[in-house]
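User: I've been trying to design a sequence by hand for this structure and keep getting stuck. Would you show me what you'd pick, starting by listing the structure so we're on the same page?

Assistant: Good idea, let's start from the same input. This is the structure you sent:
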């Protein structure tokens, strides 16, 4: 259901309003008099707004009001603010819903960028290989998704880990490179994936430095037997935050020769939240290429979709400054004490 109009307030116009609803199963039965509900409808409203300067954005959030902290809060704002070019698009495993969402996102990317690169993250949502193969077929039906398809680099972990490594995915790989993520639970994960037709494995610093280096060695050896560089290791940061996490992750990734990381930690936390002023000043001083000051906070400096990491080539694994240990709680056998 969609409504169009020009309802006007000071400084903005509401150009469209879309109404959605879905049935939601309740966690516990809800009793209202003689009526017991086990599910209830949930309604959503998506509004597109155009400001007086001609900029516009659409979005919906669980927030009833904007955060208003000076950071971008919609996809369009993030693209304009950070200069983003690489995007990870989450899939739900339902073909109709996935296509609808991809079309909505593609419209934004086509309007705002035009030269983006896409990872489709299946997030274990598809039941089997046959269900996954329906997705590229459906994408190719819609002209509005033509550029998104041409920009897609890889599909990540489309099938649940319980069966992802027991079925051959060569047919998917022939259409679109496919890699594992959640199935990379053991040191042998990449080897098992290769044997069932996968093209690569994602790296995250939380998976461990040594596993990443082992996977990189496998990639190098296997590619020597190929006529092309088939096997690859893309990277994502799993919400690493400013300080050591956001420093050590790109240091590890750069050692693999990987040129980009799908990074999102800076979307969830406003700068070095929780750090003392001395810590923020020290990290900014020692890594002034990686960090900048925004709205009075030391934050990751994202410019044209990139971060500078030259200062990370230092001893102590990308850390020329130390956290303020005295301000932290020391953990001892599961107990915490404020030291």
């Amino acid at each position: 259901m969609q409504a169009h109009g020009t309802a006007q307030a000071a400084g903005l116009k509401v150009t469209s309003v879309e109404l959605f609803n879905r049935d939601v199963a309740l966690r516990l039965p809800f009793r209202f008099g003689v009526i017991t509900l086990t599910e209830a409808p949930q309604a959503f409203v998506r509004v597109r707004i155009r400001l007086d300067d001609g900029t516009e954005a659409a979005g919906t959030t669980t927030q009833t009001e904007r955060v208003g902290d000076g950071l971008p809060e919609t996809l369009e704002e993030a693209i304009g603010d950070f200069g983003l070019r690489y995007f990870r698009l989450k899939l739900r495993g339902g073909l109709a819903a996935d296509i609808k969402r991809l079309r909505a996102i593609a419209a934004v990317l086509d309007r705002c960028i035009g030269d983006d690169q896409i990872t489709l993250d299946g997030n274990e949502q598809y039941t089997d290989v046959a269900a996954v193969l329906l997705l590229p077929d459906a994408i190719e039906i819609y002209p509005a998704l033509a550029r998104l398809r041409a920009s897609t680099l890889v599909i990540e972990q489309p099938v649940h880990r319980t069966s992802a490594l027991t079925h051959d995915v060569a047919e998917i790989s022939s259409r679109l490179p496919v890699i594992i993520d959640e199935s990379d639970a053991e040191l042998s994960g990449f080897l098992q994936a290769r044997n069932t037709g996968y093209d690569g494995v994602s790296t995250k610093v939380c998976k461990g430095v040594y596993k990443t280096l082992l996977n990189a060695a496998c990639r190098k050896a296997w590619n020597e037997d190929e006529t092309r560089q088939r096997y690859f290791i893309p990277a994502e940061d799993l919400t690493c935050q400013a300080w050591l996490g956001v420093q050590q992750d790109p240091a590890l990734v750069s050692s693999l020769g990987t040129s980009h990381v799908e990074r999102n930690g800076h979307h969830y936390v406003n700068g070095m939240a929780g750090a003392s002023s001395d810590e923020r000043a020290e990290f900014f001083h020692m890594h002034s290429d990686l960090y900048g000051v925004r709205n009075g906070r030391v934050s990751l400096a994202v410019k044209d979709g990139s971060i500078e990491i030259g200062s990370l080539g230092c001893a102590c694994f990308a850390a020329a400054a130390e956290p303020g240990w005295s301000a932290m709680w020391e953990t001892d056998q599961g107990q915490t004490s404020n030291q």
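That's my pick for every position. To get oriented when you compare it with your attempt: The chain has three domains: 1-60, 72-236, 257-339. The chain has a mean pLDDT of 84.
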